[in-house]
Amino acid sequence: MLNFHKNHKNLVLTAGGVFIALSILIAIIPALQMQETEPIPNEKPLTDNEREGLNVYVSENCMACHTQQVRNIEMDNMWGKRPSIPSDYYYSKKRLDVWRQSPSILGSERTGPDLTDIGKRQPSEDWHLLHLYNPRVVVSASVMPSYPWLFEEVDSASVRKDDKVVAVPKEFLSNPSKKIIAKNDALRLVDYLKYLKQTELPGSNVEDFIPALKKIQADRVAGGNQGALDGGKLFSQVCAVCHQESGKGVVGAFPSLIGSEIVNDENSEKLIRVVIQGYDARSDYGVMPGFGDQLSDAEIAAILTHERSSWGNDAAPVTKEDVAQVRQYVEMELNK
After folding, report:
1. pTM of the full predicted structure?
2. pLDDT of residue 87
3. Mind giving me the DSSP string for 76-145?
């Protein structure tokens, strides 16, 4: 029998053996198994720009406040359509080489929202750049720090053709006559954030593999008719980050919906097109991305009906049939 009280050599050897065994069991074997993970079919690898953006994400320690992991619990349903699986991280967490592990991006804190599907929830490059420059511009109660070193303040005459000018409202500028230019690191970081989208899982038995997915899909089907959809709630989830809950937008960055000619137009076709295809107001405001591939006809109709009947707006409701008809026109134009 080992006597650890008097024979310190046995104590050290036993402790060392237990440590090595646990390291192999808990760290080394799972790490080797992870290398055999296959990517999800149709999952897109990172481009060079997106990979560079991942490096900026790690160097700025964004995972200290943001997670990239959707858990198999109901409260996480808002961050993705399904719980995360190892294959979701095949490209972004692939081991760099024999000696270097991939950067840890899963995070453990949700001081800020989870970013698993942020590329779909917020596809606007202009919004992300404005948010990085000063989060309070778009989210007044945000506790996220600003990242001014990712931007450059220049004179209007110094702006070059290829520079990305950020539409910062004048009250957030130290010198209103200056222009804010996004540096390469800011642009690449936004490229990476826009890359973060949950890939659809193939097969008909996905819900059996991920139990929580069955409820998520059932909820979406249950809300498939317009009467069951809450336009105000959808607006808060999809549109309020730019246009604000008040509908006032952000002066110089995102237009107000209050009294808007497009919103209140008797013919809602242009408004529906804006949501489906997006809108580029050139120098007036940031570019709005299209949401046609993310929102159903009923969801778009519910959101637009909310916009046309809120904040003093008084226009006729939009039906899912109206949206379906415009979507058909858009698809015909694209296929010409």
Report:
1. 0.72
2. 83
3. GGGG-SS---GGGGTTTS---SSS-PPP--S-S--SS---TTHHHH---HHHHHHHHH-GGGT-TT--PP
